[in-house]
């Protein structure tokens, strides 16, 4: 039986990946997660009793612990989702980003190399390319020009992985995904943050002019792409994953307001009037845009869920799971929130 090690398995995207693996294969999934603020066992409540899901609590930077897991479970593949992922947090303090995203990836690479793992899939991001404003959609071989400490840490991890492929012949595959959204996303990211704030009648903070563009990818589409890259991707290859459609942040926020109004039988102005422009995020990239020809032609993957359908489903999920939101937003999160948004208040 195939055994795979999934790191950061209690986080948003990885929990969807684990659910997909358990429903579509007979593989054993070894889930190694440190359970920091954004990783929650609640994200996997429905699969916790599945005998093919084995949970280890620990940090990917702990090489002794990682080695022990490899010796005990003998995974044939590693899928590295574990990461500090929130750009605003990396601007306040980049140390945990360097530690988990770079050193943690290095530990996994070293152990996987010693144990001769047959596949190592690194989950990366479109942010490694930096700002795509005025440029063609970014291709996998384009220059890396990350703007934030978060994006730099992910770019560093990508480079380490590629060097392990070139130097040691390690069976590396890298995927670079666009902005994800969907159920179980931690409410510090744009879409769940706006839903949560609109529901509590709080202001909706739009950074700068709100005309920055992002490619929004439904999380279930993303994890199906990651699974096909793991199963059929070429060793040493990088695959961009996105829908190819950009939207401005303001457009996304207005659509959230409209859909919430529709769901609750309210006037959309009730929510749109909460929009408040704040100072911009430092180093804020204006646009991310990915060329996804490679994954389409080599792996036959393309996004299946339109933004309107995915967003509607997501809003309904948050409306029906408000207790989840309350349980994942602890006192620690509140302090972080005050730190970020106090600094962004417009003077005028
Ligand atoms: O592009 C992939 C990346 O998407 C992932 O690699 C990151 O881990 C993930 O956090 C996400 O990064 P972003 O910075 O794009 O996501 P975020 O949800 O923080 O912000 C999306 C856009 O919305 C961005 O242009 C900043 C803006 N924004 C965000 C927040 C939280 C606001 O205008 N107001 C806000 O309060």
Total count of domains: 2
- Count helical runs: 13
Main-sheet strand order equals 3-2-1-4-5-6-10
Quickly name the level 1 CATH class of the largest domain.
Alpha Beta
Bound molecules: 2'deoxy-thymidine-5'-diphospho-alpha-D-glucose
Mean pLDDT: 95
Helix content estimate:
40-55%
The CATH superfamily of the largest domain is NAD(P)-binding Rossmann-like Domain
Main attributes of the structure:
348 residues; Rossmann fold; 2 domains; UDP-galactose 4-epimerase, domain 1; 3-stranded mixed β-sheet; alpha/beta; binds 2'deoxy-thymidine-5'-diphospho-alpha-D-glucose; 7-stranded parallel β-sheet; 13 helices
Describe the structure.
With 348 residues, the chain is an alpha/beta fold. The protein folds into two domains: 3-181 and 217-241, NAD(P)-binding Rossmann-like Domain (Rossmann fold); 190-213 and 247-286 and 307-334, UDP-galactose 4-epimerase, domain 1. The protein is 45% helix and 16% strand. The chain has 13 helices and twelve strands. The protein has helices at 12-24, 63-73, 87-92, 95-114, 149-168, 190-199, 219-232, 249-264, 268-272, 293-299, 307-320, 322-328, 331-344, and strands at residues 3-7, 28-33, 53-57, 77-80, 119-125, 172-177, 179-181, 204-207, 213-218, 238-241, 246-248, 275-278. The strands form three sheets. A seven-stranded parallel β-sheet has the order 3-2-1-4-5-6-10, with helices on both faces. β5, α5 and β6 form a beta-alpha-beta unit. The chain starts with a strand and ends with a helix. Bound molecules: 2'deoxy-thymidine-5'-diphospho-alpha-D-glucose.
